[in-house]
Design a protein that fits this description.
The chain is mainly β. The protein has one helix at 100-104; strands at 2-4, 9-18, 21-23, 26-28, 31-42, 47-54, 61-67, 72-78, 83-90. The protein has one domain (2-92). It is elongated.
Length: 111
């Protein structure tokens, strides 16, 4: 979900959820991941500074169980994906404005 806090600031939250499921010879538990980002625009929207926080609650976890006639195994793994990312983007030049004729195509003069 994204929110425009002001004309210059946007925030975004991403929640990813995978439901638990039965798989061949076992079971995968549910998975949840969360990240959050904020972006501020500068210099007439030509520069953007974005700060992204990946897995701030350390909730990224993968669990599964496997059972056969000869053994049973439970896997529980925490992914090392936590992080903080700072990015700066600069837009060089301006995009060309497209007129109505550019969208339709060149005039061939045919009637």
């Amino acid at each position: 979900m994204s929110f425009r806090v002001s004309p210059k600031i946007d925030v975004q939250a991403l929640l990813s959820y995978q439901a638990p499921m039965n798989v061949e010879q076992g079971y995968n538990y549910s998975r949840t991941r969360f990240s959050f980002a904020a972006r501020e625009k500068f210099l007439g929207d030509r520069m953007n500074v974005t700060l992204r926080v990946i897995d701030p609650f350390n909730s990224s976890r993968e669990r599964s169980s496997t059972t056969t006639t000869s053994f049973s195994q439970v896997s529980d793994r925490r992914r090392a994906i936590r992080g903080l990312v700072l990015s700066v983007n600069w837009i060089f030049g301006r995009p060309q404005r497209r007129g109505r004729d550019d969208l339709i195509g060149p005039d061939t003069g045919a009637q």
